[in-house]
Amino acid sequence: MAPPGIKYSQEPPDIENVLKLNPRVNTTASLRPTAITKADKLNWKRNADKGCSSCGTNKYENDFRDIKHTTLSERGALREATRCLKCADAPCQKSCPTQLDVKAFISSIATKNYYGAARQILSDNPHGLTCGMICPTSDLCVGGCNLHASEEGAINIGGLQQYAVETFMKMNIKQIVSKEIEASRNNAHKSPIALLGAGPASVSCATFLARLGYTDVTIYEKQDYIGGLSSSEIPQFRLPYNVIDFEVQLAKDIGVKIVTGKALHKDDLSLEKLKADGNKAVFIGIGMPEPKKVGIFKGLGIEHGFYTSKDYLPLVAKASKPGLYLLYLFHLQ
């Protein structure tokens, strides 16, 4: 012990007082019937039972909610955002196909500036919410995160991106063209531009054209709905239709026009006709109409029990998305 009046930085513990805090040990063993223990477990269990015996055959029938593990609440988003290292030479940004400034929007989330985070995301990627929900981040930004080997693992970048843009979507703020762009417009910006296909490629292209000041941008879509593959081949629980509609509406906010029921065809829309109508440029974003097939499967079709992604996924997607399901039934009649 220290001399009277002198204290060391750390006094040795009073072992008798420490031992008084020890838990009391029972002198007899606990005896409880297994049946009662099982009943109590079911009564107090908080987490979902993943055992096959409790799944049931219809547990997820007609359940198309967003239940993926990366989806975050505000509390989860704030906790996750504070973990980011804000790397100077961030590998997550280098791994992103759209080169999003990941650390910048995560920093905004950490300070509850959700508008700033969404603005950062959507400025670089008009489909920021779609990518936040379905992008294979484990192969891209998350795969390059410097926290990958830490106990908590890599940052949930996709979940943070989804949370920021979903929060912005609820703000109902329209996209606008900057005043500087509006002031610098000339006759060239009035030139008609046509885009074929209302999928992600055309919507992104049209959005950037409108942001650059072009005022006569029109997207033509052969279906009665918009979104392309995002709508027709991705089920509701992975990508809700209101997300696609929100991103398309942002393009409409700055003057992009969309015409449905028009296809690239010699009897409908041809490149010659579009050129004759005065279009100065045409962007073709119709995607891949036919799936790739391995040679051994050529000649096989639905009648043989062989389904490709183009055969199967549209049935699942349309059945899971209320608006598309009604259109699908209408065409069947």
Automatic annotation (TrEMBL):
Protein name: Dihydroprymidine dehydrogenase domain-containing protein
Species for this entry: Panagrolaimus sp. ES5
Origin superkingdom: Eukaryota
